[in-house]
């Protein structure tokens, strides 16, 4: 039976499971909370998507996920509880319903200490070691695919939609396996460039790729006090720019931990921990270090989500990640490793690193005297805010190993978390060093470093006023444009720049966000009607360029489209740029006319 689109309102039945509500919407499935015979399960229903990359393999992928889960039985891995077919013909899996926060939400709202973060990642690494020992690779590790259970604080790895195992059938036609671009190891992009002309070349996913993804997760939690927010971030897998050491971004990160994260994110796979068991041991060793700096919150609680009472909302226990429909996954990043967004994010990161070093010197040698400025990164998809945790303390987690040894000498109380009722006795606390007053220039530099790239450009921050590097077409774009689409370098097409907003009116665009342009009715020139007819859709990303970057024509909205889909045809890689005069810029958004000519280009500017 061919699976169909799902419309499952609350109260509906899925093979006897009564649906309470929708929980998530991932790349390969919808997830619902179901109840049967008094038991609650996450019901994950297979659903094909155009962006999934495995046409007609919807059920095969779900069966492979089930096969992988049936080979696993670990307290930190989600467990299958059954499977069957929905009335629509879609295959479904019944999974443990894990009531908890995503890893990003837990870190953001519960203000864990460095030691608590190490404890969570030690257990994640232990679960991965168990998984890898059975020949199974997850292949989509990220913050939204690990839940922290509310009842006991245990991490649970979820969403095995992209998982594979020894001798499993290859279901994807592309060069890379399915996954999330931000968490891919840099050698995957190097493989694409090296084999761009080989249609049958397939990247062999390794344990080293999984370890790199763990490093990205750990780096994000250590450097970003609000990891669930959607904004520009440093590109951690850029082949040209090394990721900043966590300690240079957040001075609360102990130096040994910062060094470990650097090794995990090494551009050379052989310099990473040899396997996930070795990684687990290294994390365990750090967790047992008796230094007091491991017992303070990773970030100042004032910079994270508040802990005051919040409305109780039942959190989603996912069988798949939550991805809000308006924010599409940027699959085109695989086709444009040298794009302007990747380069500019790295540039902002370098500028912020220099500022961090300046502030470090200005404040003395005390690593806890202030929080270092955050490094700007490129945008990544937002995790949907599916839960609003109540005002409860973080659950006590069972330690993954021996309890940490306390430091000898005078008792020093660990810094209490925000909202804690425990008072630190003042006679036992060491005198606090006064944070030196920073010069105005340093304060301004810190403010600039905390901004996203687009906001820094608008504010005229030093280091951001540089014209972006010219980008070239994504792999295969030139052949697609000239040979298959029959475009010419001189072609100009009229577009509605964003089809979600009203045509030919002044609207707001979010810099760094995905946009879908469309050829509107009634505006086709003869040439355009032939090669880009009405309804042709262009997929790209919006950018803002200010006159402070040496732009003679004044501030401008620039949209770089790198994919196109003509009516009735397959999607093709392209190089197409549209520019519109920026009427206003505020809070990372630019106002412009939602209509403009675009140009077929081979590079820009």
Please provide a written account of the structure.
- The structure is a single chain.
- This protein is an alpha+beta fold.
- It has three domains: 84 residues, 2-Layer Sandwich (Phosphorylase Kinase, domain 1); 236 residues, Transferase(Phosphotransferase), domain 1 (Orthogonal Bundle); 134 residues, Lipocalin.
- It contains 13 helices and 22 strands.
- The chain is globular.
The CATH class label of the largest domain is Mainly Alpha
User: Could you give a short account of the major beta sheet?
Assistant: 6 strands, antiparallel
Q: Please estimate the helix content.
A: 10-25%
Under CATH, the homologous superfamily of the largest domain reads Transferase(Phosphotransferase) domain 1
Q: Report the average pLDDT across residues.
A: 74
CATH structural fold name of the largest domain: Transferase(Phosphotransferase), domain 1
Radius of gyration (CA) equals 25 Å
Strand order of the largest sheet: 1-2-3-4-6-5
Low-confidence stretches: 1-5, 51-55, 308-397, 401-469
Layout of secondary structure:
Layout: E1 13-14, E2 17-25, E3 29-36, E4 39-46, H1 58-70, E5 80-85, E6 91-96, E7 100-102, H2 103-110, H3 114-133, E8 136-137, E9 146-149, E10 155-157, E11 164-165, H4 186-194, H5 207-223, H6 246-249, H7 255-264, H8 276-287, H9 340-362, H10 440-449, H11 453-459, E12 471-472, H12 477-484, E13 492-495, E14 506-510, E15 514-518, H13 526-531, E16 537-545, E17 556-565, E18 571-581, E19 584-586, E20 589-593, E21 596-600, E22 603-604
Antiparallel strand pairs: 1-2, 2-3, 3-4, 4-6, 5-6, 7-9, 8-11, 9-10, 12-22, 13-21, 14-20, 15-16, 16-17, 17-18, 18-21, 19-20
Helix pairs in contact: 3-5, 3-8, 9-10
